[in-house]
Amino acid sequence: MPQLEELLAQFANGDMRAASRLMSVVERGGADAERVLDAMFPRTGRAHRIAITGPGGAGKSTLINELARAFRASGQTVGVVAEDPSSPFSGGAILGDRVRMTHAGGDSGVFVRSLASRGSENGLSALASDLADVLDAFGRDIVLLESMGASQVETRIRFSADTIVVVLTPEAGDEVQTLKSGLLEVADIVCVNKSDRGGAESLAGDLDAIMKIREKEGHWRCPVVMTSARDSDSVARLTAAIADHSRYLDAEGRRVARRVSSLKARLAARIDDSIRSAIWQSPMLTQRFDAIFERVTAGSLPPWRAARELAESLHIESRSSR
Amino acid sequence: MKRPLKVLIAKPGLDGHDRGAKVIANALRDAGMEVVYTGLHQTPEMIIEAAVQEDVDLVSVSVLSGAHMTLIPRIRELMNTSGLADVKLIAGGIIPDHDAAELKRLPGVAGIFGPGTSTKDVVTFIEGLFPGR
User: Fold this and answer.
1) Confidence of residue A208 (pLDDT cuts 50, 70, 90)
2) How large is the angle between the packed helices B68-81 and B97-104, nearest 10 degrees?
3) Which of A34, A118, A138, A178 has the greatest number of CB atoms lying within 10 Å of its CB?
4) Is the CB of residue B14 less than 8 Å from the CB of residue B41?
């Protein structure tokens, strides 16, 4: 493989193979990854980042294919980072998002990168944001991030993009589901996909009613868009909603404010990760863990008390009572 | 941190049978590899673009249509001219022995696997291509 400096020079000249190899350097981590990210950081911030999230099977990949087609038709270049789960048993993964992304093939204006979650428990891992940085620095106008099938509580995703699109289908449940906390609260746009199926209109109506209740003066009103990949007009309505949101962000410095809070959250997550791994890798912890766990299995110590004792012995103030 | 081996599995050409490709994809995943599956009806150009964008360690194609003597040399040639000269290619499918022998003579074609190959043999073969990974 060429040297890093050479790859970075080729990257600056728009070489796709170099960009792709740099992404792999980032994926492998370590000092080289840090050097690449250092080189990317000053070049980021130009792309409009759109996260597409929602339950597995909602049609996220298919919708991304249609969005990519629409953005290409308007002359914009597109990058996609699509994340799929790694097997917790083998560590392997099947990354199948390209199957739906037929538009990508043969058009260098669409750069699709698949990513395995490798143990990350977020719908979009920190690595997905790093790869999005590379695509942003590579000059892509639009960067689409596809999360894994997301659960209701998956709200960290809001720090990964400028616009969050939550994709649901008519099978998503009744109106009580739409009232619940979580994913819907981070949506900038809600998409009722597979809208040719029964129940789509009533779900869209329920969602719209909720968004109306949540509407606040001077704030973004989350639109509900019905889409079907078979219907290009419906995809055009979605891209129009995305463009509206982009204009909203550009007014009154909102985009900058949002990016500042995203950066803060990404930084906090990094610190969290390094503290965690430092603690778990310390031999002192391993030793004490084994000793204290023996007392738990022997039945002489309840787990929550063991956790507190251990934390206190490491001089970590345990704030939770159990 | 090491990245697991990343393998592209593609179905070039017009045949619509991807059971074999899926069986291999599953076996490789179970062996701890990351498998990018492209789906059916890929042109050689689409396969090369996917391999470039994904930066895979290995390209694996499944051909059941009988067009292997056209498709496999074409894919290899495009890989060589697209900056993927150092990426190995393997293929599986209904490929007669004498064709397999001829294809294996192409530089960069690491292996050809005919009907009845066990998934274990494919995994072992791939792992052998990357000693130390």
Assistant:
1) very high
2) 10
3) A138
4) yes
Q: Among the residues of A165-302, which ranges form H helices?
A: 175-179, 200-214, 232-250, 254-281, 283-297
Length reported for chain B:
133
3-state class (DSSP) for residue B109: strand
DSSP A169: -
* Cα separation of the two ends of chain A: 51
Q: Is B55 in Cβ contact with A20 (below 8 Å)?
A: yes
Rounded to whole angstroms, the Cα distance separating A201 from A292 reads: 56
Distance CA A286, CA A280 (A): 7
Residue in A24, A83, A103, A114 to test binding to B, most B beta-carbons within 10 Å: A114
How many angstroms from the chain centroid is the CA of residue A164?
9
Show the domains of chain B with their CATH numbers.
6-128 (3.40.50.280)
* pLDDT computed for residue A319 by the predictor: 56
- As given in the structure block, the two tokens for residue A163 are 């616009």
Beta-carbon contacts of A220 under 8 Å, excluding residues fewer than 6 positions away, are: A188, A245, A248
Give which of A11, A89, A94 to mutate to test B binding, by max B Cβ within 10 Å: A94
Q: In angstroms, rounded to a whole number, what is the distance separating the alpha carbons of residues B131 and B127?
A: 7
Give me the residue label for tokens 């997905």.
A128
Task: Give the mean pLDDT of chain A.
Answer: 89
pTM: 0.89
d(CA A90, CA B29): 7
pLDDT in tens, B49-82: 999 999 999 999 999 999 999 999 999 999 999 9
Tell me, what amino acid is at B87?
V
Length of chain A: 322
Helix (H, G, I), strand (E, B) or coil at A50: strand
Cβ within 8 Å, pair B50-A105? yes
Q: Cα dihedral sign for A231, A236, A238, A239?
A: positive
